[in-house]
Fold:
Amino acid sequence: MNWTKFAVVMVAGLGLSALLRSGGFYNALSADAEGLGMLVQLIGAIYAVLLAFLIFVIWGQFTEVEDCVMRECNALDDVLRFSRYLDAESHSNIRRALTAYTSHVVRFEWDALGDGRTDQQSEQIFGKFVASVVEAQPRTEQEKLMLPRLIDMVQQASRMRDERVARSITRMPPTLFALVTTIACALLLVVFLYPFHYWYTGAGGFVVTAFLLYMANVVMTDTDNPLKGIWNVKSDPFSAIKL
Structure:
């Protein structure tokens, strides 16, 4: 959060308000106080509805990414655990391929997805992990029964990975963000122009409104990126897989 920029804007706004008040600008608007009050309510209602809708959608996406991470890691952990029922060589190949994949996700793919980019190398490494399971050669009857279950687990992990990647790089449309920001600015402008009877009431109303709108914008933009920001989905489940 850029508090310095916010403070500069507040100081500039309060200074301009003091200048306009000393020049009699607010006295000229006092006759339109009722109309300005109606505008505050109308614009505020529109902004509240849009913000509530956006937070609902964005938070849903945020929790879905978190859920996909947990389900993918659980599937990967199951593959590793049940691969111990295969021969030592196959288990070693699966463990080595899984180690390479989880390490790459934590070190490289997480930042790439946070920047809105897919990581092709991570996809290739995951493909090698899948191949290490599919190409395993069962030697006993027990191993032959276990291999199809392992393949099912890998397929589940693949589905969760695809969903995680897709949802991680999904962002709010720029036009929608511009609309919400424009409405917020319009609301702040009307509050700034409202002819409060006392200067300190007007200054307090302007600062409080600006702070609330600024925090709403911070929450909206921060949650829109589930992998980066003040509050985000962690990559810890990948590191926690017992390799």
